[in-house]
Design a protein that fits this description.
This protein is α+β, with helices and mostly antiparallel strands.
C-alpha cells in the first residue's frame, strides 16, 4: 500500500492507494516548509490524519507540496514525515504533481493558482523551467493571497467601494486593527489573505472587483507565463482560484495575433526598420514578412497579446501614422486584409469543448453574414476570394461538420486550418486606428457570444440584441459609421 499526498498552503489531500485503487482519502491543513518548522509540520500531520493512517503497513509515501523547491526544504518536509510514518518518503514540488496531472506524458506549461501561485514548463517527464514564484510578498501574482492583499490595501485606504467594504467587515466580523494584526502578527497570513478571494467571488458583477481580479490574473500572465514558449505549447491550470474564476481567467488568457497587410510603398528595408523600431522599442512585439498577394508592400505580424494589451500598450497608433507617412495604404488597395488569430486554449482545455465554442462562432458568422460583410468593408467578390463562407446550416454542429469537410482551406471567413488558433479573415485592411481597434473588439465580442451562449440561445441572438450589449466606444463609433448600430449621421475619417 502507498500513501500519496498533495499539498498547497491551505489544504493537504492524502490518498491511500493499493494496486492503483483508491482505498481512502483524508484532508488536513496545508503544509509549507517556508512557513512551518519540522516540529510544526509533524504536529499538524499527527493531529490532522486519522490514527489508522499511521498503523497501515506502507511501502512508500509520495508527497508533492508547496514550498518544496530546494533540497533543504524537501529535507525539512521529508524528515517530518519519516518521523510519523516510519517508511521511505519521496518529496517533490506541487508543480511536478500539477504538471503530471495536467499533461501526463505531453509537454506544456503548467500553472497553479491557489493560495499561492506558481508555474513551470514541463517536457513530458520533468520540470525543465520554473519562473520563481516569489511568495505572497515578492510575487505570487494571480494567487488568492495577492488578490486578498490588493483588496485589503484598498479597503484600509478607503479606495474600495463602500458597499463591498461594509459587507466585508460584516461577514468577517473584523475591524481594521484586527486586519493589521492578522496580516502582520498572526500565523499564516497568506491563508487569511486567500480567504478574501472567496468573498470577492460574490461581487464579480461589481466593476471594481472585476477589474481587481482581472488585473491580478493579467499580472500572472505577463510576469510568469510570458517567460515560457507560450506560443507553441498549451497552458493549463489547477488550483482553487483558477477554478473559482475560470470564466475571467479565460477572458484574460484570450490572446490575439494580428496580421495587418500594407501596400503601395515598396518592400523597403529602411521603412520596415522604422516601423520595427517603433513597435519593439520596449518589447519584442512585431515582426515583418513579405506576402505574395501584395503588389508592393509587406505584412505586419504581431506576437500574441491580450486585447487589453493591443489597445493600451501596443503602439499601433504610432505604427499606423508612420506607415501612412511612408506612403503605405491598406484599405485603399485591392490586396490588403486584416487577419485576427485567437488562441484555441482560451475557449477550453479540451478539444471537444473548443469545437463546441468554435461551432457557435461559425454559426454566428453565417447567421449574421450580411452585417459582417458590411462591417468588413470588403466587396462580395473579395470576400468570396479571400474569406469565403462555409454556407448556412440550421445548427452550429452542422456548420462545424461542413467546415471540417469543406474545401476552402485557409481562405475561409473563419480559418480552422491552424492547430493553435482560429483565424478571422473577414476584414479589409485599414490604417485608421479606430477601425482597427473596433475590429479587435468585435472579434472579442463574437468569441464571448460563442462561449456564453448555448446552441439554442445563439440561434435566437439577433444582431440588434448583440450590438445592444456593446459598451466599447471605439466599436460603437464604427458600428454607427457603418449604420450597424443606430442609423444616425456620424462624421467619419477617411479609411487609409
Amino acid at each position: 500500500m502507498k500513501l500519496i499526498a498533495e499539498s498547497g498552503s491551505t489544504r493537504t489531500e492524502w490518498a491511500l492507494v493499493e494496486d492503483n485503487r483508491l482505498i481512502q482519502r483524508a484532508f488536513t491543513e496545508g503544509l509549507n516548509p517556508f512557513f512551518q518548522t519540522r516540529r510544526e509540520i509533524s504536529r499538524s500531520v499527527r493531529l490532522g490524519l486519522p490514527e489508522h493512517f499511521f498503523k497501515r503497513k506502507l511501502e512508500q509515501v509520495y508527497y508533492y507540496g508547496a514550498g518544496c523547491t530546494s533540497y533543504e526544504k524537501k529535507n525539512v518536509l521529508g524528515a517530518s514525515l519519516v518521523a510519523q510514518f516510519k517508511t521511505p518518503i519521496q518529496v517533490e514540488s506541487d508543480l511536478l504533481a500539477a504538471a503530471r496531472g495536467l499533461f501526463k506524458c505531453e509537454a506544456g506549461i503548467a500553472c497553479i493558482l491557489g493560495t499561492g501561485s506558481n508555474s513551470c514548463f514541463y517536457d513530458g517527464k520533468i520540470v525543465v523551467k520554473n519562473v520563481r514564484a516569489g511568495g505572497y510578498i515578492l510575487g505570487d501574482e494571480g494567487s488568492g493571497a495577492v488578490l486578498g492583499k490588493m483588496f485589503l490595501s484598498d479597503v484600509l485606504k478607503g479606495l474600495a467601494p463602500k458597499d463591498v467594504t461594509a459587507d466585508f467587515f460584516e461577514k468577517f466580523r473584523i475591524s481594521p486593527n484586527e486586519v493589521m494584526e492578522s496580516v502582520y502578527n498572526r500565523p499564516f497570513p497568506n491563508r487569511f489573505l486567500s480567504t478574501i478571494s472567496y468573498f470577492l467571488a460574490d461581487y464579480t458583477n461589481d466593476d471594481y472587483v472585476f477589474e481587481l481580479i482581472t488585473g491580478n490574473l493579467r499580472n500572472f500572465f505577463t510576469r510568469n507565463v510570458c517567460q515560457y514558449d507560450y506560443k507553441n505549447y498549451p497552458i493549463r491550470f489547477v488550483g482553487s482560484l483558477a477554478y473559482s474564476y475560470a470564466t475571467i481567467l479565460r477572458e484574460v488568457a484570450r490572446e490575439f495575433g494580428i496580421e495587418l497587410e500594407i501596400d503601395g510603398a515598396g518592400r523597403d528595408d529602411d521603412f520596415a526598420e522604422e516601423l520595427l523600431d517603433i513597435a519593439n522599442a520596449h518589447a519584442d512585439l512585431l515582426y515583418i514578412k513579405t506576402d505574395g498577394s501584395l503588389d508592393d508592400g509587406m505584412e505586419l505580424v504581431s506576437h500574441p497579446c491580450t486585447m487589453d494589451y493591443h489597445i493600451n500598450e501596443f503602439p499601433w497608433e504610432d505604427i499606423m501614422h508612420r506607415a501612412v507617412h511612408q506612403g503605405y495604404r491598406s484599405h485603399q488597395t485591392s490586396t490588403c486584409g486584416l487577419h485576427l488569430h485567437v488562441n484555441r486554449n482560451a475557449f477550453s482545455d479540451s478539444q471537444e469543448e473548443q469545437d463546441e465554442v468554435i461551432s457557435r462562432i461559425l454559426y454566428f458568422v453565417e447567421h449574421h453574414w450580411n452585417e459582417l460583410l458590411k462591417f468588413s468593408r470588403r466587396s462580395e467578390y473579395a470576400m468570396n476570394r479571400w474569406a469565403a463562407k462555409y454556407g448556412y446550416e440550421h445548427t452550429p454542429k452542422a456548420i462545424m461538420d461542413k467546415a471540417k469537410k469543406g474545401g476552402n482551406g485557409r481562405y475561409a471567413a473563419v480559418n480552422l486550418c491552424n492547430y493553435h488558433t482560429v483565424e478571422f479573415r473577414l476584414f479589409r485592411g485599414t490604417l485608421k486606428y479606430n477601425t482597427f481597434i473596433a475590429t479587435i473588439q468585435l472579434v472579442n465580442r463574437i468569441c464571448d457570444a460563442a462561449m456564453y451562449n448555448t446552441d439554442d440561445s445563439i440561434a435566437k441572438l439577433s444582431w440588434s440584441d448583440f450590438v445592444a450589449d456593446v459598451t466599447e466606444p471605439e466599436l460603437i463609433q464604427y458600428l454607427k459609421e457603418r449604420q450597424l448600430y443606430v442609423n444616425e449621421e456620424v462624421c467619419a475619417e477617411e479609411e487609409m
